Amino acid sequence: MAGAHRRKAPVATASSRTPAADNEPAIRTIKKYPNRRLYDALSSRYVTLAEIRQLVMQGEPFVVRGAKTSEDLTRSILLQIILEQEAAGVPLLSESALANLIRFYGHALQPLMGRSLEQQLQAMTDWQRELGDAAQSLQGPAFQALMSDYVAQSSHAMTQIQLQMQRQAQQLLGAFGLKI
To answer: Assuming Cys at both sites, which of 1, 67, 69, 94 could form a disulfide with 31, CB separation 3.0 to 4.6 Å?
Structure first.
């Protein structure tokens, strides 16, 4: 969640933190009980969704597990946090964007859409971090270079998405003997 190249956190064990392997930081385990309460095993106390959101904001790796089943519930908790944020103020996603996301579920392009969104969000996160780092000494040329880099990254990502979609469409239509 924190690093530019960090992927999904490894699965936590029954302990409150997993042993560090390959210099990876240990992962905080939060247990979700049937009464919907969340227990942070590291701090030995119950926590709220707002506190879990703070862990996300701080880049703290964690996993949410069912207290009885040990099932990984991290995604559902993250989705709950997004739902609360969407309902609380100015939504990040419009109704149209949400409807389009729903339409991609079960569609042949679903994996491509997921990768595309992940790449775009990571590019925005990286850009935001760079902008924050540059804000202290922000000057005209430095800001222009930063914006230029972001636009180039976004353009490259969109070009890659278009090429992948075109290849998949050709493969799909080729299966029916059609050519583009």
So the answer is: 67
